[in-house]
Write a structure and sequence with these properties.
Blueprint lengths: L5 H22 L10 H7 L11 E3 L3 E4 L5 E2 L3 E2 L2 E6 L4 E6 L2 H6 L17 E6 L7 E9 L7 E8 L2 E3 L2 E4 L15 E3 L7 E4 L17 E6 L4 E8 L9 E6 L2 E6 L1 E4 L2 E4 L12 E3 L1 H10 L1 E2 L2 E9 L2 E9 L2 E3 L5 E3 L6 H9 L21 H4 L15
Parallel strand pairs: 12-23
Antiparallel strand pairs: 1-2, 1-25, 2-5, 3-4, 5-6, 7-8, 8-9, 9-10, 10-25, 11-13, 11-24, 13-14, 14-15, 15-19, 15-20, 16-17, 18-19, 21-24, 22-23
Amino acid sequence: MRKINTGKKNICLCLAVFFISLAPVFAQKKTVLAPEAGNKSWNEASSSCPPLLAGIWSNSSRFVIFDTDYFAGENVNIPQIVLRLYFTWYDDRAAESEKYSEKYKREINSDTAKSKAEELQIKYIPLTQSDQKSGAWDILIKYPNRKETYHVPVAVIEDNLYLNFLIRDTSFFPTPDYVNEGQILELSDNINSFWRDWGLSKGILISPSVQKKELTCLYFSNEALYKIRYWPCTLDFDSNAKANLIDENINAELPKHLKLADTVYTCTLGRRTLIRNTKRETNEAKNEFLKNAVYNETLLPQTKETENGSVNYFIKTSTILCLSSPYLSRLADTRTMQEIVESDNSRRVPDRKPLFPPHGILDFDWSIIEDPPEDWNRRMLDLGK
């Protein structure tokens, strides 16, 4: 009778149990987007349209109006989106209020959808302090027949609206040793600090847009530019968590977690605090980068606590940094949206130019037919032989 080696059997059993117990640990490393908490953010957002977003915005593919006079539910604004089709030769009112469609009949033809226009709802959450020329907001959009709330962060500088932008972390501002009440301080280098990426969405669309999976934040020093990658994680958001960026003459303490559109992002693995694999650009590349970027200038109110009480002062600096061309521009046209649509749709595409240029009076000699050449019936293939 064959003997069973119980020692080896027990070892194999222990190893099997060990690897099975490790399976959940490795499974946790899979990156999963945090669940959307749209209801809470939606209730906290403001329904009133910011003054900087008023008017008609346009690009080569659409018109967008945020401050329409049509509301749904508890005074939630309904925006209007008009698609510019056929190389801007035809305008389709694709998203608008149902009451607006009743007032102005929407044209239904082979170029437009047979269904009703989409009725979107939007709210706003300010991302930074706004002034008369610049500001940034997280636009919350609810689409019909969808429970989720979708986020489209936007920045406005004068009459241009941007989607790819960053916002400065004001916690990196230096505290002056002495300052007077109401004094305006201008930073010697208003770019050196940590800039947080808010460029999440690809556009303001009539359906949910594709969002970026990662964020790229920037840290400016006196000598270089650092690009820091943040990716989604399932960790609980900790606003006090810090990560260290260590390089030549650089030892900066940056936020470890970022929260954008109810998703938590991190720049390190697990409990680590050292940022790795950062992309370092030289000072020349940094200057070239800033030359192509667009940023605002604003006054930020600050407070300094002293022995005699608090002192209020201002810092003249930049808070918004836009990295690409504008997504939308504000129209200077005084016409209403309906007048623009009727005017555009009344146009007709001009006829194509003739394939051959016109010859005027045809110069034709009948002698060619009456007395044709001897080789008039030669084949084209025989010519030149």
